């Protein structure tokens, strides 16, 4: 029995996770990719052993191993693409660089200053027009 008394130690101590849990579609794709890659590795090993044993099964196993390698590559790419799509659709918080933030702040100040300029500088109706008076 596990008791939290002073005399006995607990079997384990739960700690908060260091990384957030992967979203469900990404985790599903990752599990699928791991299973496909594991089966491909087993198949490649069987093909190698069948080739070394000079078995009739060697040629079909080598062909299917090549096909499985293509499928395993697709599975790994599927994880990457699913992750990118998830991030794009569900909004990964991106923090702009301090330079971009500073430039935006300066542009905002310039726009505010232009709006607050005295009326003697800005003539109504003369926006964008060149006059010879």
Name the descriptors.
133 residues, mainly alpha, 3 helices, 0% strand
Uncertain runs are: none
What is the strand content?
A: under 5%
Using the CA coordinates, give the radius of gyration: 32 Å
Mean pLDDT: 84
Quick one: how many beta strands?
0
Please provide the ordered H/E string of secondary-structure elements.
HHH
Main β sheet profile: none
Explain the overall architecture.
Helix content is 59%, strand content 0%. The chain is mostly helical. The longest helix has 32 residues, at 58-89. 8% of the residues are buried. The model has no long low-confidence stretch (mean pLDDT 84).
SSE layout and pairing:
Blueprint: H1 24-52, H2 58-89, H3 98-115
Helix pairs in contact: 1-2
In short:
The chain is mostly helical. Helix content is 59%, strand content 0%.
